[in-house]
C-alpha cells in the first residue's frame, strides 16, 4: 500500500480537527507547575510559561513571587534587574516593584505614580513543586488542583527533575496516555516486548482519562527488578494505570509483585511494591514544554542509593520520550497541512478523548 484513498485521508483530517494540537491556544484557567521549589531562590529566575514571560523569586520569608517579566516604563525585562529587599529594581532606569507588582519608587522624581505596575500571578507551593494560576484570578481555586498526597507523604520516598521538551505539551499528554510505546521507544530502558501486546482497558470520563494495563507474567527491566528483587524471568506482575488528572498533571501508578505467590499466603500477605510518577507538562510556547517530574516509591524508604539508581535509570527513559517527541514535532512542522493526516488505533481512545476535552476547554474559555 500505498497511500490511503482521499476519502480516508479527509476523514482522518476531520477527526484531527476535533482534537487539540500545537495550534490550539493555551487553556489559561488551570493550575500548571511553574518550577521545582528548589529552583526558586533569592535571585531572579526568568521563565516563559503559556507564552508569557515571567520572573520568579523567593522573598526573605520564603514566599514565592511570580511577576510579569516586563517593566511598564520602557519594557526592559525585570529579570535583567536586581533583587533588593524583596523588591525588583529595573536595570534600565531604576523603577522599583514590590511583590504585588506595584511600582513603589521612581528614582528620577519624588513621587511614584499610583496604580502603575505589572501583573502578579498566584502561586501555590506544595511538596517539591510550585504551581501557578495564569488565567482569571477570580477562578483560581485550590480545589481545582488534583489530590497528590503521595507527593508529600512520609510513606513515600521521592526524587524530582526537569526536562526541556521541544514539542507541544499536548503530544506529551498523548504520549503518557498510551504506554504501548514502552516496547519500542523505551526498548532499551524500561520497556519489554510483551508490554505492547498486553490487554488494556480504557477509562474515559468527564475530564479524566486513563489507560490500564496488566502485564502478567513479565520480566522486569533492571530499574524495577533490582530495587524490588523481582529479578526472575517471567516472575513479575506489572499493573499499570496511566491517568490524565488535569492539564498540568498526568500520573502513572504501577504495582509490582511476584505473580507466582498467592495474594494471601498461609503466613503473610504477598509483598507488593508501588511506584508513582507525576508527569507535569507546562507549555512554554506552542512547540516547547517544561517537563517536570516527581517520582515516588513506597518501598526501600530512606535508601539514598536506590533513589539515585532509580532516578538515573528513569531519566534515561524520560529523555527517550523527549527526544522522540522532538522528532515527531519536526515531522509535523515540515509536513504541508494538505498532506498531513494521522489515523488512530484502539489504544489511542483515551488520548483522543483527552485531546477533544482540551480543545473543548479552550473553546469554552475563549467563548466565556
Ligand atoms: S524600563 Fe524599567 S525603569 Fe525604564
Ligand atoms: Fe515514554
Please give a structural write-up:
The protein has about 375 residues and is α+β, with helices and mostly antiparallel strands. The chain folds into two domains: about 40-135, Rieske Iron-sulfur Protein (3-layer Sandwich), CATH 2.102.10.10; about 140-365, Naphthalene 1,2-dioxygenase Alpha Subunit, Chain A, domain 1 (Alpha-Beta Complex). The protein contains five helices and 17 strands. The chain has helices at about 5-15, 170-175, 220-230, 305-335, 350-365, and strands spanning about 30-35, 45-50, 50-60, 65-70, 80-85, 85-90, 95, 105, 120-125, 130-135, 155-165, 200-205, 210-220, 235-245, 250-260, 270-285, 290-295. Strands 11-17-16-15-14-13-12 form a seven-stranded antiparallel beta sheet, with helices on one face. It has a four-stranded antiparallel beta sheet with strand order 5-6-7-8, with no helix packed on it. α2 (about 170-175) packs antiparallel against α5. The protein starts with 5 loop residues before the first helix and ends with a helix. FE2/S2 (inorganic) cluster binds next to loops. The site of FE2/S2 (inorganic) cluster has 9 residues, from loops.
